[in-house]
Specification:
The chain is an alpha/beta fold. The protein contains eleven helices and 13 strands. The chain has helices at 3-10, 16-19, 35-44, 67-76, 87-96, 107-111, 115-123, 149-163, 168-175, 188-198, 218-222, and strands spanning 25-28, 53-56, 81-83, 128-131, 136-139, 201-202, 208-209, 226-227, 240-243, 252-253, 257-259, 269-274, 282-286.
Length: 294
């Protein structure tokens, strides 16, 4: 057994997908129910579910009118994709369990005869996905500065187990009572779920800030808030992070991270990045079906 097999067995992650060979692996940012644009992007990259693999950085649903269609298609090709859960996916599960109220874009999922099948599949998904072959790690919002890769995978596993437990509705109710900003002695799971699904800015001590939602600018830096991936003492991950969640940041890439949320749901673009080769191409399509920016 190799070192990565041991690592994945320790964290309870199946390694079958990693051992498979694919013609291409594409990563896509937030879909948020924009099904027509999503399918147009798949056509543009000539995605072939019999040969290719698809990574999706969370927020499959909500706000877009095609949320049900997105889930149905992804479920159909579930053996050829890797997804991580985003805040809007967690919202859908909260609606499913009566914790939050529904809306017109989630109602069709709740009314679908396939509701339970789709949402049981959704709740089984991780918060962090890592492939050592290509050395990419994917998360919806980010990996907090206090976490190394092993901690991120461990807390993803803990949250995934909680979300699949019989007590999941009560557990999730507690996790939605408010953000935990600091990784400390208590409420570590709540900190982790907030970091993985909601984080954008941190202070230089790695404390999360949920008030800043725009792009980094001189005002945020002067106030002591930095993008989570720019915190000076951030623990080394040894892998490049793919994330979404931050439409005002838009597409950006450096040696450590790639942001793939390009604001499709706000009539921006939907973006795909090929990640199985160095300097993989970037493909975008316009998203006219999105809502006008707030």
């Amino acid at each position: 057994m190799g070192i990565f097999d041991s690592l994945f067995r320790f964290f309870g992650i199946e390694n079958n997908d990693i051992e498979d060979n694919y013609r291409r692996i594409w990563a896509i940012g937030d879909i948020q129910g924009c099904n027509n644009t999503f399918r147009e992007l798949l056509n543009k990259i000539e995605f072939d579910a019999t040969q290719d693999r698809l990574w999706i950085a969370g927020d499959l649903v909500n706000r877009g009118e095609g949320s049900l269609e997105v889930l149905e298609y992804l479920y159909k090709i579930k053996n050829r994709i890797n997804i991580v859960l985003g805040n809007h996916d967690i919202t859908l599960l909260a609606v499913h369990w009566g914790i939050k109220k529904s809306n017109q874009t989630l109602d069709p999922i709740l009314q679908s005869p396939n509701r339970n099948q789709l949402l049981e599949w959704l709740r089984s998904q991780p918060f962090v996905h890592y492939d050592p072959k290509i050395n990419y790690v994917m998360v919806h919002a980010g990996i907090p500065p206090a976490f190394d890769l092993g901690m991120a995978l461990e807390y993803s596993k803990r949250l995934q187990q909680k979300l699949q437990s019989a007590d999941a509705p009560r557990w999730l109710t507690k996790k939605m009572l408010g953000g935990v900003h600091t990784f400390g002695e208590k409420k570590k799971n709540r900190f982790a779920i907030n970091a993985f699904t909601r984080m954008r800015f941190c202070d230089q001590e790695g404390n999360l800030d949920f008030d800043q939602k725009g792009a980094p600018n001189p005002k945020t830096y002067d106030s002591g808030f930095y993008p989570w991936f720019e915190v000076k003492n951030r623990k080394k991950l040894g892998a490049k992070v793919i994330f979404g969640h931050w439409s005002t940041l838009g597409y950006m890439e450096n040696k450590d991270v790639i942001c793939l949320d390009t604001g499709c749901v706000w009539q921006g673009k939907m973006t795909a990045k090929r990640i199985d080769i160095p300097d993989g191409e970037i493909v975008q399509v316009d998203c006219p079906e999105g809502a006008k920016p707030l």
